[in-house]
Design a protein that fits this description.
Blueprint lengths: L2 E2 H7 L5 H9 L3 E3 L2 E2 L6 E2 L6 E3 L2 E2 L8 E6 L28 E2 L8 E7 L2 H8 L7 E8 L4 H9 L2 E2 L2 E2 L4 E7 L3 E8 L6 H8 L4 E9 L2 E2 L8 E3 L2 H7 L25
Parallel strand pairs: 9-15
Antiparallel strand pairs: 1-4, 2-3, 2-5, 5-6, 7-9, 7-17, 8-9, 10-14, 10-15, 11-12, 13-14, 15-16
Helix pairs in contact: 1-2
The structure holds uracil.
């Protein structure tokens, strides 16, 4: 059956659909030896010989779903023109080419999903898929009730109002406050921009939950494979009762050390 090339490439785990479109327009993709640069082009993945950069694309693949505890100081891409560390350097012993679902900023830590399943990644990244993401936030100073009301009511950013965020105070220390912020939108640098708009100086940001999947006690820089039920549930194929969380790792939320 004929399908759009970008769909075939993402379905085969080469990269995301968006990045596949770029590959096509850059002239890196060929079908039966002929370079294709038109975005609407179609091919038959069962009959045609599709190649990227001259290397044949295999349609047989083992689908991998992986949860990484991203350290700060890593870029959420496959390569970085500025030579900064990239997250794929942390994944050892998995021959499949994995790419991240969404992104975390260079200095944001925590739960990042990677896969070679383009359909799954597209489902999760689609704006209609309103999965909750929970962040542990450390700020300098105090978190007054006015600021909590501002964040939890939705706040004006340059690209429009945000949806209300759920705020939960974790710990107030002399100079810092730790709290969690739960959002379901996935706008660019959203948590940082919300804190900036509320005049809260952000010191540390870590994603600790994505839907029902918790980061748990996975150490920084380590990863684990999601099992197929967790992956299906995240994409909304299997529903979990509200409030039930899935994790292989023990603690739901660790109290941060005083600093
Ligand atoms: N919000 C941010 O500001 N940065 C991230 O990395 C993730 C969410």
């Amino acid at each position: 059956m004929q399908e759009r090339l970008q769909k075939i490439l993402s379905g085969a785990g080469v990269t995301s659909r968006r990045a596949a479109e770029v590959m096509i327009t850059e002239g890196r993709v060929s079908v039966n030896g002929v370079t294709v640069t038109e975005l609407g082009s179609k091919a038959d993945p069962e009959k045609d010989k599709i190649a990227v950069d001259g290397k044949p694309v295999s349609m047989q693949k083992n689908k991998i779903y992986l949860l990484l505890n991203k350290p700060a100081g890593y870029v959420t891409t496959m390569s970085d023109p500025d030579g900064r560390p990239v997250i794929t350097e942390l994944i050892k012993g998995i021959p499949e080419r994995l790419y991240p679902v969404g992104r975390l900023d260079f200095n944001t830590e925590g739960l990042l999903l990677l896969t070679n399943d383009g359909d799954w990644a597209n489902k999760l990244a689609h704006p209609s898929h309103e999965v909750e993401k929970e962040y542990l936030v450390k700020i300098r100073g105090v978190l007054g009730s006015d600021k909590i009301a501002l964040l939890s009511g939705g706040i004006q950013l340059e690209d429009g109002m945000t949806a209300p965020a759920k705020i939960e105070l974790i710990r107030a220390l002399e100079k810092n406050v730790w709290f969690t912020m739960t959002i379901h939108e996935g706008r660019y640098r959203q948590v940082r921009r919300m804190c900036e708009a509320a005049e809260l100086p952000l010191v540390k940001l870590k994603r600790i939950r994505y839907g029902n999947i918790l980061l748990g006690d996975l150490k920084t820089g380590e990863y684990r494979l999601l099992d197929p039920a967790e992956a299906r549930m995240l994409a909304g194929v299997e529903k979990k009762p509200r409030g039930e969380q899935m994790t292989k790792a023990a603690p739901v939320r660790k109290r941060p050390k005083s600093r």
